[in-house]
């Protein structure tokens, strides 16, 4: 087993770890430009790393104080739960690490910024999450992260997944820890109770930004949402999904995944700054 790793020479750096992050990854461009915008002498390095070589890389990064933290791509998000020095509350609740920071004591801490960014983006459009009743569709990787953070933020959750076992398992874990989360199998019978509908399925996504008329539920059911309800689709490609078009046509508040997507990058970038200044990070990334 070859665990030897080449660390970049020179300046402090952030990094993304993935199977092949250099291919098409946006984070190196975003991070380098944001460091530049802040006048920081720092670089960003994409590590192509296999699951077998991940522990070796983490060990080397722990020992290299120039590593500031960074992003994590599939399939390492779960594996890192056991490789880092500490795991923060959101990453533990979600069961995945998508960002790493270095604490003042030198420890590498696993964080998760996906769900937090979803909550912040939602609150900016639809107001406080606490006490709201949300119907969330889709409990894949993204859906679990979003659902976990909405539950931590005090929402009441109804979760639905095409494969119902995933929804029942998620609801089981969370309701056991005292959170109001229940699995639903029939969207039609509960949608009228929802203050907001959140799509975390991949239905409506278009890899090539082409038109996509697919929707994760029968759009006629939107008529049953209360008039004050918001519809949040975490998809950001395209920005207008069939779900959001139909919701807007009914006069409902709508929100796409653009600010969540930028938000998770901003939060992760802020974790790598010496003062963890979120506003500074947001301004630097918005300028890119
Ligand atoms: P992501 O990282 O985007 O969350 P994922 O983990 O593959 O990707 O999850 C995709 C989600 O979209 C899952 O909830 C999936 O449902 P299943 O768990 O039943 O597979 C959901 N999804 C994908 N295609 C779907 C479809 N045609 N109808 C309903 N849900 C769908």
TrEMBL record:
One of its GO terms (molecular function) is NADP binding. InterPro entries: Aminoacid_DH-like_N_sf, NAD(P)-bd_dom_sf, Shikimate_DH-bd_N, Shikimate_DH_fam, Shikm_DH/Glu-tRNA_Rdtase. Residues 127-202 form the Quinate/shikimate 5-dehydrogenase/glutamyl-tRNA reductase domain. Residues 24-100 form the Shikimate dehydrogenase substrate binding N-terminal domain. One of its GO terms (biological process) is aromatic amino acid family biosynthetic process. It holds the Pfam family Shikimate_dh_N. Pathway: Metabolic intermediate biosynthesis; chorismate biosynthesis; chorismate from D-erythrose 4-phosphate and phosphoenolpyruvate: step 4/7. PANTHER family: BIFUNCTIONAL 3-DEHYDROQUINATE DEHYDRATASE_SHIKIMATE DEHYDROGENASE, CHLOROPLASTIC (PTHR21089:SF1), SHIKIMATE DEHYDROGENASE (PTHR21089). This is shikimate dehydrogenase (NADP(+)). It comes from Magnetofaba australis IT-1.
